[in-house]
Amino acid sequence: MNVKIQTSDSLNIMVALAWIMVALAWMHVVIKNECQDSNFELVEYHGCMDTCSNVNNECSHVWAEDPDVSWIDGVVSKITGKDVEINTSNGKKIMEKLTKIYPKDMEAPAGGVDDMTKLSYLHEPGVLQNLRTRYELNEIYTYTGNTLIAINPFQKLTHIYGSHMMQQYKGAPFGELSPHVFAVADVAYRAMVNEGKSNSILASGESGAGKTETTKMLMHLGGRVATEGRTVEQQVLDSNPVLEAFGNAKTVQNNNSSRFGKFLEIQFDKHGRISGAAIRTYLLERSRVCQVSDPERNYDCFYLLCAAPQEEVEKYKLGSPKNYHYLNQSKCYELVGVSDAQDYLETRRAMDIVGISGKEQEAIFRVVAAILHLGNIVFAKGKEVDSSVPKDDQAKFHLQTTADLLMCDAKALEDALCKRVMVTPEEVIKRSLDPQSATNSRDGLAKTVYSRLFDWLVDKINNSIGQDPNSKFLIGVLDIYGFESFKSNSFEQFCISFTNEKLQQHFNQHVFKMEQEEYTKEKINWIYIEFVDNQDVLDLIEKKPGGIIALLDEARMFPKSTHETFANKLYQTFKNHKRFIKPELSRTDFTIAHYSGDVPYQSDQFMDKNKDYVLQLQSLMETLNSTEPHYIRCVKPNNKLKPAIFENLNVMQQLRCGKLVLYGVLEAIRISMAGYPTRRPFFEFINRFGLLFPEALEGNYDEKATCQKILDRAGLQGYQIGLTKVFLRSGQMAELDAKRAEILNSAARIIQGRICTHISRKRFLAMRKASVDLQSICRGRLASKVYGNKRSQAAALKIQKNARRYQSRQSYKKLHVSSLVIQTGTRAMAARKELRSRNSNKASTLVQAQWRSRRAVIYYKKLKRGCIVTQTRWRGRVARRELRKLKMAARETGALKEAKDKLEKNVEELTWRLQLEKRLRTDLEESKAQEVAKMQNQLQEMQKTIDETNELLEKEQESANKNIQEAPAFVEEKEVFVEDTEKIESLTEELETLKTTLDSEKKRADDAEAKYHELKESKEKLANIESENRVLRQQAVSLTPNKFLSGRSRSILQDLHSGSINQREPSEVEEKPQKSLNEKQQENQELLIRCIAQHLGFAGNRPVAACIIYKCLLQWRSFEVERMSVFDRIIQTIGNAIETLDNNDVLAYWLSNASTLLLLLQRTLKASGDAGMTPQRRRSSSATLFGRMTQNFRGAPQGVNLAFINAYSIVEKIYGMIRDNLKKEISPLLGLCIQAPRTSRASLVKGAPRSVANTAGQQALIAHWQGIVKSLGKFLNTLKGNHVPPFLVCKAFTQIFSFISVQLFNILLLRRECCSFSNGEYVKAGLAELEHWCYDATDEVIANMRMLMTEDSNNAVSNSFLLDDDSSIPFSVDDLSKSMEQIDIADIEPPPLIRENIGFSFLLPRSD
Asked: Sheet holding 61-66: strands in order across?
């Protein structure tokens, strides 16, 4: 009994609690309804604070540029200086510069941020990743400050639209809810109501970005105001199918692109209710009517009419779109997923809705059909001159049909197309047009008719919607096509680009200019932020006078003006304008560098421009300037026009948009976050936030002081107070609103509490009585249910007991039977397994026995076969040995020839190796000389150059050692006793000679290694010289102020030396006289460089350039330590002049100048007491120039030493180049001079006399030798004409003759078929021709050469100097100076370029 009582009490308590909860819920509903009935409203204020966190720039997770996805994330694995190694997320490893990577925010929300001003890192990859993340979640809207970015989803997202979403955003503060187009519409409406000013919403973006759909969504703002019948919003939306049919067309980027600008005005009365609406259109693309590019389409209405019901098509005499010229220019006639027939019916229904009668509809489509027929009228030449007529019957048919549809006379229409009427004060003149002009007239008529039809439709729609001329405010929505650039851009694209430029300037003025001008006007502390302005483009287009439009108006005033004259006028006027570009391959096109990119325009149609388009644009800009703008930037995520595809490169291109990130969106974020986006006048601020500090209102303070006290009480930081306004940072307005809302909520709660208490008390008494009655009824009902439950529980227990017993019995029986079956099966399986095991053991035993027997048999057979093979091979070897002994006796006669061939082969191979070794060493010496020259200018690369030289020397030594080791192997042959012993002995002597040559080459390699060590020592000497240079620089700096400057100038120079001159005022720096002197000297040096770059010629036999350079160097004291830069530039100028030239005339000119300059520099050394320290050059030495000279110049001035070294280096370089050029010229001829032609061998063999050789036939046989002689004569004349020192000419010809002899000798050795008596006579005749040229030469150089040849021929020890080919420089400075006469440079006239310059007056000859 006790249990029952407790159960009943608990149940009673539970039931009571349940009813109490129901009562409380009902009471809450009643109270809420009562509050609403009593017109009480809970006041809530919401605010948000912008947060900004400091991030560390040294972040391991970064963004790097990628050509495929624009930006890719990765992790930094290694940092080397300014380079970073990154492991990207796609598994690649890349290297990037530190300046080109951006940190990645690893703490960013997974779903992105709704306002990009909240991004921790505001950069391109951060913005792109945030947009991509939200787009993947179907969050297509994102804020950037006060600007909304809308990404086209290319699908219907019903969950973010509808009346329930509009109710959520109705009255909500901007930024409190997720970004949405409804939020922008609501903000514009509330700003209009609260501030009493008209607003405008500008939707921009490229074609296909979703501007038109966004505009449709914005028109839903009319839904917030209840009206009777069809709302204005609904009427505007109903008119969209009509406007889209006649104003939209398929383009490359969008299947339903608006080809006109639309400004929708939603008009409101003074109470904020919609009172009317109007649609303003701008810049209809008239050229599309007559010209369509593939794969675009013409306006949709043409295709809709062709797809109309059959009776309509027959009535207008139409057919397939392929039959009409205005439509078949493109191969695109239908759109995938779009039914033109269905759209035609919907367009007719929309016309009915907007109030266009059936008669008017018929007239509209008659005009559309007439335009199609008009385009098929083709003209041909008429009987008169420059006249035209319809081409054929088909053209006449379309002409008649057009006249019938337009309800005009066909003849009058033909005259209008084929003739031009000019009205003068005296008479009316009619002039016939040629077929091309008639065609242009036809297209002009079609464009005009269609444009006026479109304007009529817009006026009809406006009349249907109903305009309110007395409206108080308006909200305008602008939908205009964005920036476009096609293959052919006419005047209409020019207008579109100009419109976008004006809109960009409007955006700049509101976001950038007005923002910062406001700060300047209010005189607050503000750091000016630079932004890109496009005012220069607007001035280029619309400036008066002098703009493109003004020039176009001027050109149209003259009857004879054409597009060519107009284009030429543009080229002349804007040839220096940075935004105007003239193409190279066109005489009528021009390009303008707009803010979004360069657009080429064709001026062909500019003379027929629409006169009123400037007025349209001016009206649009006046309307926008009179409203408060709001911006929506539409972005197209991909070019495939498909959902769920986000192409990073495409989006980033739209964001950047000509170096302005999304038309300045990121720039706007930067300025907004750095500035004060919220500003309020003093009186408005006090009226709104005065309740935060009531004591300030009671005191006698001015408005500025009152605002200061309110802000101090609120505890805000970073705000600014101007002259008339309060400027707040981003988020501070929300903080003040939150504090104000807290005070208002507290007051509202007190009032609401009192009223709600009274209502609740009254309702509570009635509810308490009702609850007591309900409780009594519920207890009775509950007791009855408890008794029935107990009876059911007892019966259930009894049934369960019997059922469980039965189930247990059945389970036991099944388990017993199953265990017996399992045991039987297990025993049977074990028995079968044992049987299989025994059978397998028996079988394996048999197999093993058979295998062992087989293996023994195989081994026996293999062993037997091996024995037989071994015996056979041994017997064969013994037999071959016996046979070889027998053949040795019979081979005695053939052994001589075999040995001879081997020895000749070895001689050829060793000779070839020797020549190759010489060439390698020559190339190595030249490379070393070049490396030494580089060491003078690049001391920091010395170690690397030494390492490379060391490697080359080691390889050379290894190659020489290898050749020495291999040489004996070629000559160690088995002695064979033959009869021709004299031939073998001569070959053996020649081999010994080659061995000796190899030994000498080995010694040269050792010498090269010794020179390498000298090179290392020269490096240390260079370091010492560099330290001496630094000391001399310090001494020069310290001595200069004391010697030349006053006390004030000396202090300035000391400041300059210590690096503090940058802190002085510019006026003090300008007072330094030394700076002007340096600038003047720098100008003189530049003038000297330009002068010597020209060919200055010679004064007698003296090169003018070398004399001028030397006199300038002496005058400027350029041989001092710190003043060698001018000589380095002179050497660089000479090097640039001869760098890639194969012209021996130019090389000879510079060789003469360089050698003369070298002689003058040596005279300077001798004057300094260093005549005995001139560098000597040994022919066998392979040491570098720097190593030979620096050890002898330690006592001379450093500037003279460096100048001397550079001058000697350039002489060596030019000498080698001019010598090698001649070698290249005669090398092809030498190969032809070794073998006589077949026709001449007979005469040569017979030993024809000298007189026969001089005949014309013999001269033809030695034509190749004559070519060599001609080249030598030309080379000699070139050197003489440029006054090259005779000593250098002699050395050059010595090496050339050596080259000729060595080449001939090598060719004879390598081509044994040329070693015949006839070829020998042929070579002898050629050499005789060469010797004859030498004897006939009158020049003293060749005479010296002839004497040298005579001495060498009489010398029994020498093998003739012609066989000594040496590619090194065969002279020293002393040899050159001894061979040249002293040069007097006093009377050298300066060239005209510097003669009149006062800075070079010292060059003028002076007469005492």
From this structure: 93-97, 83-88, 70-80, 61-66, 102-103
Instruction: Give long-range contacts, CB 8 A cutoff, 24+ apart: 163-166.
Output: 163/223, 166/220, 166/223, 166/224
Sheet bearing 580-581, strands edge to edge:
580-581, 589-594, 597-602
Nearest to 1015 by CA among 1212, 1182, 1215: 1182
Please confirm, yes or no, whether 482 is among the known catalytic residues: yes
Given the residues 215, 248, 254, 490, the one annotated as active site = 254
Which pLDDT score is estimated for 611? 57
Between β-strands 61-66 and 70-80, what pairing exists: parallel, antiparallel or unpaired? antiparallel
pLDDT score, position 456:
95
545 DSSP 8-state letter: T
User: To which residue do tokens 């005492």 refer?
Assistant: 1408
Tell me the pLDDT band of 228, cut-offs 50, 70 and 90.
Answer: very low
On whether 1367 is known to bind a ligand per the annotation, the reply is: no
Contact 184, 632 (CB under 8 A): yes
- Does 212 count as an annotated binding residue? yes
Whether 1221 sits among the annotated catalytic residues: the reply is no
Flag whether 699 is marked binding: no
Catalytic option among 142, 144, 212, 1278: 212
Residue 1202 has pLDDT above 60, yes or no: yes
Q: How far is CA 601 from CA 482, 501, 556, in A?
A: 17, 16, 18
Residue ranges of alpha helices (H) inside 1173-1285 are 1185-1189, 1198-1232, 1238-1245, 1250-1253, 1256-1261, 1263-1281
Q: What is the mean pLDDT of residues 1103-1115?
A: 81
- CA distances 597 to 485, 495, 539, 672, Å, are 9, 15, 17, 26
Q: Given pLDDT bands bounded at 50, 70 and 90, which one contains residue 407?
A: very high
Q: Is 91 annotated as a binding residue?
A: no
Ramachandran sector of residue 1143 (left: φ over 0; alpha: ψ -120 to 50; beta: rest): beta
DSSP strand E in 538-642: where?
Answer: 580-581, 589-594, 597-602, 628-635
Cβ atoms of 131 and 151 closer than 8 Å: yes
Q: Residue 1048 corresponds to which tokens in the numbers above?
A: 């004030």
382 annotated active-site:
no
Instruction: Please report which confidence band the pLDDT of residue 71 belongs to, taking 50, 70 and 90 as the band edges.
Output: very high
Does residue 5 carry a pLDDT above 90? no
209 is an annotated ligand-binding site residue: yes
Q: Is the peptide bond before 637 cis (omega within 30 degrees of 0)?
A: no
Say if residue 112 carries a ligand binding annotation: no
Residue among 112, 126, 208, 1199 flagged as catalytic: 208
Question: Distance between CA atoms of 1154 and 1216, rounded to whole angstroms?
Answer: 13
Residue 206 marked ligand-binding? yes
Closest to 361 in 3D by CA, of 278, 304, 284, 445: 304
Q: Is 375 a catalytic residue?
A: no
Q: Which of 74, 126, 247, 482 is catalytic?
A: 482
Q: Is 734 helix (H, G, I), strand (E, B) or coil?
A: helix
Q: Is 208 a catalytic residue?
A: yes
The residue from 146, 198, 207, 255 that is catalytic is: 207
1135 catalytic? Reply is no
**873 burial level (CB within 10 Å; 0-12, 13-18, 19+):** exposed
- Pairing between β-strand 199-204 and β-strand 473-479 as defined by DSSP bridges: parallel
Q: Cβ(247)–Cβ(302) under 8 Å?
A: no
Give 96's strand partners.
84
Annotated catalytic residue within 258, 401, 437, 1377: 258
At 102-152, the pLDDT tens digits run 888 887 888 899 988 777 777 889 889 999 999 999 999 999 877 899 999
Mean pLDDT to the nearest integer, 48-73: 64
Q: In this structure, are residues 308 and 353 in contact, taking their beta carbons and an 8 Å threshold?
A: no
- Per cent of the chain over pLDDT 90 is 21
Hey, which bits of 696-797 come out as E strands? 720-721, 725-728
Query: Is 207 annotated as contributing to ligand binding?
Result: yes
